[in-house]
Amino acid sequence: MTTENTTAPVRFDTKIAVLLRADLETWQRLNVTAFLVSGLGSELPELIGEPYADADGTPYLPMFRQPVLVFEGTKETLTAAHERALARALPRAVFTSDLFATGNDRDNRAAVRAVPGGQLDLVGIAVHGPRNAVDKVLKGARMHP
């Protein structure tokens, strides 16, 4: 993270991004986004900030230190982004269409494990890394409306 002074906006050297398939229903978009970013937070603890507390001292869980940008694209855009994320060895999480039919973590992992990487029916991918590398992974995607 770099800042020029204490009043300037914070500009992060890294980016957290979620890419969703454009044909998902609203509930699916929200569900997929929540699942995907949980993978990044658990594997990259440096992305998590300090716990929160209100003025009464009630504690709240910590959250990401930086914004999560959400994009959308076609099935082909997701496939290309997945390939680029792998080629750049960026930390990533995937959500496939098969996961909508499972009901637990064990079955989710089994559903992904059953399909070769190049044949995954991706509906979402989350990545973290240097801003320019993430931008290249997301080539062809657009900001979620």
Could you describe the 3D structure shown?
With 145 residues, the chain is α+β, with helices and mostly antiparallel strands. Helices cover 32% and strands 23% of the residues. The strands form two sheets. The chain has a five-stranded mixed sheet with strand order 5-6-1-4-7, sandwiched between helices. Strands 2-3 form a two-stranded antiparallel sheet.
Number of strands: 7
Distance N terminus to C terminus? 27 Å
Principal-axis shape equals globular
Task: Spell out the helices and strands N to C.
Answer: EHEEEHEHEHE
Number of helices: 4
Mean pLDDT: 93
Question: What share of the residues lie within helices?
Answer: 25-40%
Instruction: Sketch the major β-sheet.
Output: 5 strands, mixed
**Rg over C-alpha atoms, rounded to the nearest angstrom:** 16 Å
Give the DSSP E fraction (strand runs of 2 or more residues). Answer: 15-25%
Provide the low-confidence segments as ranges. none
Q: Structural class of the helices, strands and pairings?
A: alpha+beta
User: Biggest sheet, strands in spatial order?
Assistant: 5-6-1-4-7
Put the structure in a nutshell.
The protein is an alpha+beta fold and 145 residues long. The protein is 32% helix and 23% strand.
List keywords for this structure.
single chain, 145 residues, two-stranded antiparallel ribbon, 7 strands
